[in-house]
Each structure stands twice: as structure tokens, then as C-alpha cells.
Model the fold of this input.
Amino acid sequence: MNPYGILELDLDCYESDILKAYKRLSLRFHPDRAGGDAERFKQLTEARDILLDPKRRAMFDRVGVDCLDRVMETVVRLTKESLRSSESCTVRFMRSQVSDSKRQVKAEVRKVEAQLNNFRSRLERFNSDNNSVECPLASLVRSEIEAEISDGRAALSHYEHELNYLNELETQIRTLNSSPSTSPIRPTGSSIMYFS
Done:
């Protein structure tokens, strides 16, 4: 594409010449007008943009049409590669965040399991020590320990749900890493995350 030829200009034209030529030709080829040509109008706009940008114009004047096209293709290719690399960094970051979250949830599961074991052993000791005693205080202590065990089971269930959620998220991230530019991650389940 030769922007000078498209706008019917000489190489030594000024900015005002470029704008006048663009206005004159764009009125004739605008796609909304009768006899307009959408493709030619796009070429006019691109030619104007090249010639009005001092850097692009200077590059065109130095290297010509073919080289400018090759440079633009190279820029596009490098931009795509950069985006792929950026996606890869994002995926690695997401994977590390999920891994950290899983580690934190597993630590919480271990704490809850230890508390549950402690409450169960307390209940067994209490029952063995007060097996024959049936008083309101013994019933109250038993029910409180059983309530703690029930709460621990609920917390354990919650953390297991969170681990399932994080495993699903991890699977989706793995899929993202193997095929960049796919649909965004849409995990089901809880929205609670343990990112630090």
C-alpha cells in the first residue's frame, strides 16, 4: 500500500495537503454515499493515518511499501507472542494462588480434625467417669461437648467443600494453561477464597 498514491499526493506534501486530499477523496468514496466504496474508504483512512503520524511517515519514506508491511506483520506477531506470554504469567500466578489457598484450607482441616478428636476423647472420658451419674449438670456438659463435635463436623464439611472448589478451579487453570485464550474461569460452588 502506497499512502501517497492512494491520496494522490507528492512525497513532499504537508499536513494540510494530506487533510485536504483525504477530505476530497473520502467524500467521494464514503460508503454511505451513492457510488461509495467501503474498501477504498478504509485505504484512504489508513493512508491518512500513516502520513499524519510523523514516525510512521518517516519509516515509510525510508523503507517503502514492502518493508513497512513486513514491519507491521512482525509487530503483530510479536504482540501476539507477548500476549501469550502474559497469559502464561497470569496462569502461573493463578495456579500459585490456588495452591496457597489449598494449603491454608488443608491446615484448617487438620486443626478442625484435631479439635474433633479432642472433643470425642473428652466425651468418652466424661462418659466413662460419669457413667452412672445422671444429673442435669452431666447432661449439660454432654450436650455441650456433642454440640462442639457437631460444629466441628459442619466446619469439616465446609472445608471439604472448599477443597473441592479449589480442585475444580485448579483443573480449569490447567485447561487454561494448555489452551490459552479460552473462555474465562467459571467455577461452581463457593466464592470464598483464601488468597493471601
Notes: DSSP finds five helices and no strands in the chain. Helices lie at 3-6, 15-29, 38-52, 54-129, 136-178. Residues 93-178 form one domain. The radius of gyration is 35 Å.
